[in-house]
Each structure stands twice: as C-alpha cells, then as structure tokens.
Amino acid sequence: MREVITLQFGTLANYVGTHFWNTQEAYFTYGDEQTDTRSIEHDVLYRAGMTATGTETYTPRALVYDLKGGFGSLQKYNRLFNTNNESSVSSTWDQGTNTVVAPQYPKHAYQEHLDQLETDPNADHQIDDASIQTWSDYNRIYYHPRSMNTITTHHKEDTIAPFDTYTVGRQSYEDFDREEETFDGAFRFFAEDCDNLQGFQVLTSIDDAFGGFTEGYLNALREEYPKTPVLTFAIQQQQQQQLLSEQHKVLLNRALSMARLSEHSTTYIPLYTPTSQQLKHVPYIHANSHLLYHTSAILAAAIETVSLNYRQVERSPLC
Hints:
Blueprint: E1 3-9, H1 11-27, E2 46-50, E3 56-60, E4 62-68, H2 109-117, E5 148-155, H3 166-180, H4 186-191, E6 197-205, H5 210-224, E7 230-236, H6 244-264, E8 267-272, H7 276-279, H8 292-307
Parallel strand pairs: 1-4, 1-6, 4-5, 6-7, 7-8
Antiparallel strand pairs: 2-3
Helix pairs in contact: 1-8, 3-5, 5-6
C-alpha cells in the first residue's frame, strides 16, 4: 500500500479539508448499495483501526491543526472513540471541590440531524448555508482522537494578540513543538502505521500566521523525511473589502509562505477562493462568494481532482 498522510493547518484549510473528507466519505458504499467506486483505493488516505472496546474503525490518516475555539463543537473524543468510562479520582482533600466547565460551542442543526439519522435513517434535513459559522458545522466524518491538534498558544477570537502574521506563526510552532513534541506524538502514530508511505499532502492557510506555523512544521518534517514527496496546497481567501494595512499584512504573509514553504515542498500549489466576478463566468456553479462554506467547496473540488491520480487503484506517484 502507498499511503498518504494529510496535514491541515488553519481555519481556511480546514474549511476546504472538511469538504474534501465529506466527498471521500460519499464514495463509501454501505449495505446493498451498488455504487461503482472500484477505481478509488480508500486505504491511501484512510486507516483501519480498532477502539478500546473492540469496535472496528476506518478514519482519515490526517492531522488537523487549528487554534483554541477553532474546532467548534467537534470533540477530540467523539462518539466512535468515547468509552464512557469515567475514572474515579480519590483525594484526601475534604473541603469540597468546584468544577469549572468552559462554555461549549453550540451544536449546529446539521450535526443534530446527523445524530438523528443514526436512529431514523429516513430523517430529512436541508442545511442552511448561511448558518455555517465554522468548518465543524458541516463535518460528516469521525476522526481519530490523535487527528485533532489544538494550538493552545492562541485563541481564534483573540483581538489583543491575534494570530495574524508569519513571524507569530513561526514562534507559535516553536512553542507548540516544545510543549507537544510534535513528531513524537500524534504524527509518529500515523507515520508508523504506514507500510509504504507515499508522501504528504498539505492543506494550509497562508493569509495569516499559519504560513509561519506550517514552515516550522515542514522544516522539522524534512529532517525526518528528506526525500519523501510533499504536495502543498497554499490556500488563500480573496477579500472583498479590506483596510490597506491589512492588505499589506496578508500580501507579506503570502510572499513569505510562497518563498519558504516551496523550499520544503516537492510541489507548491497556490489556490484562491473565487470572487463574485470570477463566479459570473461559471454559469453552472451557483455559489455565494461571501460564504466561505461555498467558496471553499470549489477549492476542495480542485484538490479532489488533482489528488485522484494517487488515490486510484492504478495510480500515479504523489509528485
């Protein structure tokens, strides 16, 4: 098997990645379904496993990175991997304890619908596109707990210390690696599970600090895998209206990302979300350029097409 590990960095990349994984899930057949997907080799991007309770699993071979607050209602331990075993902790403290629980992100109506489908397969629900607030709102798949990686140095909604420049992202990676030991934890889990690693496909946001974070990550990756192909999709969002100072900041982030990420990538592919003017020339796509839920789906379709070559049974190399 020629496995590929997927790395996703940042909210914009995860919007695209969620559409991509939802599409992969749509290729699966269940029960008596007779859809012909024999040309797709799912094991390239997915891994088979087993939970602590003996349940067989089939989850993306992916590592997803986002800031605190960026995962929405998506939990690290989902229903598939939750053993519901609450450990009791004994303590000699006899003065009582207080439990402080952070407010949880409300579950989107579409996620409620997916839960309902498990008991009522005929339940009908139409997703409200305008109600999507983050990428986990329309996520359809279960990830392995080791796939979910929170960058704890910054919060998504932090306006005092925003995660918005390349240098901030580079320093954030150093702090993250010092705390989490990136290549000795979750990454090692997925890499050592591969029989014949074909390469890495990287989806990263580069308008903000995630370009710098990704550069730190790929720099360390190249020390471990100097000759393994790395296909990087650098995802950028076309802003309709933006202050001049913000435009300059984004352009600098993009320039630094292109210069440095391309050094660590076998192939570097910049992708931009389409503008309303560009969409006017594509009559068969009815997308709202102001909805990231729509524009990210178009980029996911492009990645789906590009990656088809190395996901087929009779496939070409990654790069």
